[in-house]
């Protein structure tokens, strides 16, 4: 059974091109690990592979969900595992590519043994000012507080939630999980694309311009019933604001570029922690 090859990197770094190259070399088939490329009707916004690229080698898990369908890392895992197993059963190499770090983490290491969200507690935390949440986390788990982006409300809230639901420190649970995943990492093989910041930003700007000129505006206009997942795709809110007359075309493009650059920076930080990935400098 041939193990998967994972190809990761920030948005617009060239993952799809490298995946095609490796699939041709290894006789592989490409499996999507991008949260938004799972959806039909978001092909341009999500920069999904073109029809020409899809025809070159078999691709899996692209455009398989209706825009109204909710999805998360757990549901992705349930979709991806049988697809990968089928590719391996045919003595082919699964080439798993995408930039959704949590989706990839679930696939490579499994879900962390952390408590699931509690709706009532989450509502309580959502109603709490961020300053009080930070103080609460610092009291419950100083170690976790020290390594959490304290301006990110979602991160702080989740850390507090883990502490309260588990009765343990979030840092202890995460550290224990990291120790376990280190053993799994030794048996994984993967590549992560690195580009200079100016190069990546130029590629992002070029892709945004091509996207807007290539039909993305009409694509968003056609979205009438979509899940909160789809709404989070970069470009959806910005284009909807433009269609509503709230902003102009230039501002829309600038906002998409800025949001994409910020997302790419977060992706780079995520993959930097995945030490099992071998860097590929482009």
Can you characterise this structure?
By secondary structure, this protein is α/β, with parallel strands linked by helices. The protein has three domains: 5-112 and 178-196 and 266-281, Rossmann fold; 119-174, no CATH class; 197-263, Crystal structure of tRNA isopentenylpyrophosphate transferase (bh2366) domain (Helix Hairpins, Orthogonal Bundle). Helices cover 56% and strands 9% of the residues. The protein contains 14 helices and six strands. The chain has helices at residues 15-26, 51-56, 73-89, 101-109, 119-126, 130-140, 142-146, 153-166, 170-185, 197-213, 216-221, 228-231, 236-243, 249-272, and strands spanning 5-8, 28-32, 59-60, 93-97, 190-194, 278-281. A six-stranded parallel β-sheet has the order 3-2-4-1-5-6, sandwiched between helices. The two termini are 30 Å apart.
Properties at a glance:
14 helices, Helix Hairpins, Rossmann fold, single chain, 3 domains, alpha/beta, 56% helix
Set down the secondary structure blueprint.
Layout: E1 5-8, H1 15-26, E2 28-32, H2 51-56, E3 59-60, H3 73-89, E4 93-97, H4 101-109, H5 119-126, H6 130-140, H7 142-146, H8 153-166, H9 170-185, E5 190-194, H10 197-213, H11 216-221, H12 228-231, H13 236-243, H14 249-272, E6 278-281
Parallel strand pairs: 1-4, 1-5, 2-3, 2-4, 5-6
Helix pairs in contact: 3-4, 6-8, 10-14, 13-14
